[in-house]
Every structure is written in C-alpha cells, then in structure tokens.
Amino acid sequence: MLRNIFHLGIKELRSLARDPIMLALIAWAFTLSIYVGATATSETLHKAPIAVVDEDRSALSQRIVDAFLPPYFLPPILITTAQMDARMDAGLDTFALHIPAGFERDVLAGRAPALQLNVDATRMGQAFTGSGYVQAIVNGEVYEFVQRHRAESVPPVQLQLRARFNPELNQVWFGSVMELVNRITMLSIILTGAALIREREHGTVEHLLVMPVTPFEIMSAKVWAMVLVVLLSSAFALQTVVQGVLAVPIEGSATLFLLGTTLHLFATTSMGIFLGTIARSMPQFGLLMMMTLLPLQILSGGMTPRESMPEAVQFIMLGAPNTHYVALAQAILYRGAGFAVVWPQFLSLAVIGAALFAFSLARFRKTLAAMA
C-alpha cells in the first residue's frame, strides 16, 4: 500500500510538471502576489495628492494650505475652480479643497462658513481616512487662528504607547505573512481539486479504476504530493520574499511554522478533493473556490480580528482550519511563540484534518463507484 501511494504521488508530481498554467500560478502566488499584496494596500494615509482652490487669499486660508504636510499629503497644488472637476475626473487629485471668498472675514464674524471638500472615492482607503485628516487639520488651524495662539492643552491622563512585535506599525509586516497564509490555502485547494478534475477530463480515472489500487491510496497520493509542492513553495516564499525582499523580521521558529503548515495542508488538500468530486469541470470548480475561499479568508481572523465578529460566526469558524492556522501563524511568526503555546492550534488542525480527510474519502469512494 505504501509503495502504491508513493508511486501514485510521483505520478501526480509528473502530471503537475507538465502543466505550465499550474506552474505559473504557483510561481506567481508565492512571489509577486505576496509582494504586491503586502505593499500595494496601506491602511494609513501616505502621500495623498491634494489641490486647493483658494478664493479668499487671506492669512487664514494660506495657513490652512501650509498645514497639509508630508508624509500624509503631497505639497498642495493651487488651482482654479474651473480646473477642480477636470483634475478630479483625470485622477490627478484625491482631495480638492475649495476655500470661498470672504472665508477669514466670516470666521472672525462668527458666521461659521462652510468649506467644500471633493474626494475621489474610488481610492477607498485614502478617501475614508483622508477626509477625517483634512477635517481635523482645517478645524485645528481655524481654532488656533481665532484664539491667536497655539493652545497646548494638557490632558489629565497621558497614555504611553509601546507597540510590541511591530514597533514601526508597518503594514508590510502584517500583510506579507497574511498573504502567505492565504496563498497556502488557495493553492492547496486548487492543486488537489484540479488534479482530480484533470484526470476525469483526460480519462485517466478509468485507468486507475482497473488498477489494483484503492480509493484511499489514490487520495493519499494526491494529498501528499500537493502538500509537498505547497510546503516547499511556502518555505521558499517565507525565506526569500517575506524575510529577504520585504525584510520582515520573523520572531519564531520557521520549522515549527512549517510543521503547522503541514497539518493545515492536510486539511485543505482534503477539502480540495471534496470540491473536486462535486465539480464536473474547471469552471464549476472555480465557482466553488470563490464560495469557499472568501469566507475562509475573511472570517478566519487574517483580515479583521475575530473578536469584532458576531459570536455565532466565531463559533462556526472554529470548525474551519484557517481559523486555527491564522492564530498559529501569528503567534509563531509575530510573537515568537513555542509549541507549549500553540499546541491547541496543532491539535485542532489535526482533528479537523482527520475529519475532512475521512469525509472526503467517503465522497471520493462514492464518486469512483458511480463512475465504475
């Protein structure tokens, strides 16, 4: 039986080596995808382009213009009213602030004049955060101008902030590891499911049915072969892309993380086999992937904390391998946790993996029996 599982796994690896599309997907997922996902999206405002229509030309309006400083904003560009909409339509400005004539006079007279802020909402991250920044800057400058001095209020309690595990509050440190976790899950499901569907489309499943092998041997071979491919790719990405190119410090043991990854892959590859038995073609499999991956990635705690989700969702997601794998990866790679800390996650992944393997094997046997 072990000999059959080994040779069938070698067959899977050879089949994968002859599939250039899958090889390109693996290469992209564990290199450029991680780099782009970690660096392209930022949760903070950084060098946002802003333009100002200053029709007041007063000391207060100039003070407001000078308050938009790097690194949050690029140096403000003074434009006319006619240019404002055209520049916004061309995507040149994310923010366009319109200061009307007589603004300083109305402020000193206590009339509470209004300013117009146009925001390019297609840049969602900067638009949502930047609007609050602009409002705070304008209100602060107006208040200080009216008070004729910069007031320094002393709060009754002073908070001393000490950021652990990511003292620079660098989004890349968080994003790169979470991108790696998501790619591991995605590729493990795709490779095993696509391997089964590919055999069905090419007619090689019939060859397996007449051979002296059992469904357990066939499924085990697919699982260990794809686990090996994804595990080696993830180790390469962790060492080369995350630690090398992105210079993300890894606090814990990479070996312990890869051991946890192996248990996670045992569960997700079994899930891929199950989806492969349901789908009849690659387009159907792609639709099932979308319905499966999005909840796993969004609700597992990799994008938002699980504590912010409804308790019912938290309870349901305890049955998903991603929930425990994300907690394991964050504890080991961010906080340097050892096995004494993460053993509950290891145990949960082993139990979930065994259950998914048994369930998928039953479905796989039923599928092969129907084909026979």
Describe the overall structure.
- With 372 residues, the chain is mainly alpha-helical.
- The chain folds into two domains: 2-41 and 168-371, no CATH class; 50-147, 3-Layer(aba) Sandwich (abc type-2 transporter like fold).
- Helix content is 66%, strand content 4%.
- The protein has a four-stranded mixed β-sheet, sandwiched between helices.
- Helix 11 (254-278) runs antiparallel to helix 14 (321-334).
- The model has no long low-confidence stretch (mean pLDDT 88).
Which key features would you list for this structure?
372 residues; mainly alpha; abc type-2 transporter like fold; 2 domains; 4-stranded mixed sheet; 4 strands; elongated
Sheet/helix structural class: mainly alpha
Shape by Cα distribution: elongated
Q: Average pLDDT value?
A: 88
Number of helices: 15
Portion in beta strands: under 5%
Query: What percent of residues adopt helix (DSSP H or I)?
Result: 55-70%
Number of domains: 2
Poorly predicted regions: none
Distance between the termini: 21 Å
Which strand order do you get reading across the main beta sheet? 2-1-3-4
